[in-house]
Write a structure and sequence with these properties.
The protein has helices at about 5-20, 25-50, 85-100, 110-130, 130-140, 145-155, 160-185, 195, 205-220, 230-235, 240-265, 265-270, 275-290, 295-315, 320-350, 365, 370-380, 390-405, 405-430, 435-440, 445-465, 470-485, and strands at about 60-70, 75-80. It is globular. Helix 3 (about 85-100) packs antiparallel against helix 4 (about 110-130), helix 4 (about 110-130) packs antiparallel against helix 6 and helix 17 packs parallel to helix 21 (about 445-465). By secondary structure, the chain is mostly helical. The protein has 22 helices and two strands. About 75% of the residues lie in helices and about 5% in strands. About 55% of the residues are buried. A hairpin with a 4-residue loop joins strand 1 (about 60-70) and strand 2.
């Protein structure tokens, strides 16, 4: 069993063991077991970066075993510069989520921790799969733990939000399954994704494939106008569910564009790039304005996520290295920053049991340590230089300006809107006089909360100050992808 298999199956096995335990029995031991399993899975992923060869675009740490031999389906895993960081990000965020739910979750603790460990392994499987059917199985299986997390530990409208999340993402994926079966037949009975990249496919077929993949991945990102499930899911999900949803699950769709849409249908990708760019700019500008009028903190950050992910798809489809690398950096930084923002909201909610902005005011007076972290993450969400939130957005804006100055100017308005809605929330929640007795009674961070926010603060500042390790790893793979797309016959 290789490193990737360990990263996938170790948390899944631990999750299944926790699910098999009796309800709410030995809750303390369950928490420690979940933390040990998530830490072990994270440690397993570290050699992926430590031993990664940045000089090649080839897949590394490959595993290739027969699975369903009759239909030539293989258990094939591997990572390149595009996917390897997301394996580490998934494992890291899982550790944070286990710590975040330590004291907050008091019922069905084993099922809660087990669901997140299962979800972690399945998401790493999505980023590692090099067999089309294996990818589809992992991609769809991620819906089940998240559906349960929202439906069991969510808010008052959790069942509605869970169903909406499940139906939106499942229906989009059915067209992708048809596309995968077409490619299986076209390739002579192979689910090898890398072989699909080399298939000579006529333009009309590429267009159909492009929109079949678009149906699956655009909902997952989510892009405008199929984003409406996300605010509902975020608002109703428990804090840990919101963190994983924002930090990792949205990235599955964006990753799909790079692994399937662009290399398999390069001509169609170039022909329909204007369509993706237009939808991305609508997300960046219009959704930024929608975020400005939100009264619920979680809903504000949910809309903020749609706007930030619009930067990602914009960067991918301008077809230059700054744009694609910037989109990837934005995906990683958004994982740190949006996850931290939802954790901060969770810290307040645990104390006051309200997410309404109007319920707060002057939090800095009673929770100074917490306010330092909260304002730091808010600044990163605005794209402040020196934080992770700045690097990817700035690279995408520069790449867009290289393509067209006016498109770049439109994209840059996101920095203005991002500052507007984030700072407006910060002003009303954290600064000013103590607004009410609930705020006056707030207790500052405990050691557990300080640890989880401290880890994310270190990641946010580290990536913002020194992004070179991230861009170095992805450089060759991005260059090779763009070379492949540029060789299209359009």
């Amino acid at each position: 069993m290789g490193l990737l298999s360990l990263a996938i199956w170790l948390p899944i096995a631990a999750g299944l063991v926790l699910l098999a335990l009796g309800r709410d029995q030995h809750a303390g031991a369950v928490r420690w077991a979940a933390l040990a399993a998530s830490l072990a899975a994270f440690l397993v992923t570290l050699p992926l970066i430590g031993s990664f060869d940045v000089g090649t675009a080839a897949m590394q740490f490959e595993e290739n075993l027969p699975w369903i031999e009759r239909f030539n389906v293989r258990y094939r895993l591997g990572v390149d510069g595009i996917s390897v960081w997301f394996v580490l990000l998934t494992a890291f965020i899982t550790v944070i989520v286990v710590i975040a739910g330590w004291e907050v979750i008091t019922e069905r603790v084993n099922q809660y921790m087990g669901a997140f460990l299962l979800l972690s392994g399945l998401m790493i499987g999505v980023f590692s799969a090099l067999d089309g059917l294996l990818f589809y199985v992992f991609f769809e299986a991620t819906l089940i733990p998240m559906y349960i997390i929202i439906g069991v530990w969510g808010g008052p409208n959790r069942v509605y939000a869970a169903f909406k999340f499940f139906l939106y993402t499942l229906l989009g994926s059915l067209l992708m399954l048809i596309a995968l079966l077409y490619l299986y037949v076209k390739s002579g009975g192979s689910f090898d994704i890398l072989a699909w990249h080399k298939l000579p496919i006529p333009l009309h077929a590429q267009v159909l494939l492009f929109f079949a993949f678009f149906a699956a991945f655009s909902v997952k990102v989510p892009m405008w106008p199929v984003h409406t499930w996300l605010p509902d899911a975020h608002v109703e999900a428990p804090t840990g569910g919101s963190v994983v949803l924002a930090a990792i699950m949205l990235k599955l769709g964006a990753y799909g564009f790079l692994r399937f849409s662009m290399p398999i249908a390069p001509d169609a990708s170039r022909e329909w790039a204007w369509f993706i760019i237009a939808l991305s700019l609508i997300a960046v500008i219009y959704i930024g304005l929608v975020a400005l009028v939100q009264k619920d903190m979680k809903k504000l950050i949910a809309y903020s996520s749609v706007a930030h992910m619009g930067f990602v798809t914009l960067g991918f489809f301008i077809f230059n290295e700054l744009g694609v690398s910037g989109g990837l950096v934005q995906m990683i930084s958004h994982g740190f920053v949006s996850g931290a923002m939802f954790l901060c909201i969770g810290v307040l909610y645990d104390r006051v049991h309200s997410r309404e902005i109007a319920a707060y005011g002057g939090v800095v007076n009673t929770m100074p340590k917490f306010a330092v972290f909260a304002v730091l993450f808010a600044m990163a969400n605005c794209g402040l230089p020196g934080t992770a939130g700045f690097v990817g957005e700035w690279m995408v804006i520069l790449g867009t300006v290289q393509l067209n100055f006016w498109l770049g100017a439109l994209a840059a308005t996101a920095l203005v809107f991002g500052a507007a809605y984030t700072l407006w929330m910060v002003k009303r929640v954290y600064f000013g006089a103590v607004a009410n007795s609930h705020v006056a009674a707030l207790a500052d961070l405990n050691a557990r909360e300080f640890l989880m926010l401290g880890l994310l603060a270190a990641a946010t500042l580290g990536m913002g100050v020194y992004p070179k390790p991230f861009t170095d790893v992805m450089h060759v793979s991005v260059t090779e992808l763009l070379r492949h797309v540029a060789l299209s016959k359009l």
